[in-house]
Write a structure and sequence with these properties.
The protein contains 3 helices and no strands. With 79 residues, it is an all-alpha fold. The longest helix is centred in the N-terminal third of the chain and has 11 residues.
């Protein structure tokens, strides 16, 4: 688990496309009031990948964030 404020824990950075946060983001982009047609098109094509991580700046995110962005680059896998 990642460090958090006393008495609280945060989940390890993992991909959870069915999470409540991912659902809220989906609904936000899909809302008629959201103006970005590019985002709406990406959402309609299923081209948005949802990832959740610990708070920005948490070193526990480093490897997971690099792994999450790798399919978007030509960078070879670490190892």
């Amino acid at each position: 688990m990642a460090a958090a404020s006393p008495g609280h824990t945060l989940p390890s950075p993992i991909r959870r496309p069915g999470s409540a946060m991912a659902a809220r983001f989906h609904d936000f982009v899909a809302a008629p009031s959201f103006p970005c047609v590019g985002s709406k098109a990406a959402l309609a094509r299923g081209a948005i990948q949802m990832h959740e991580f610990a708070p920005l700046g948490d070193r526990a995110n480093d490897a997971s964030m690099l792994d999450a962005r790798r399919p978007l680059t030509r960078e070879p896998a670490r190892g």
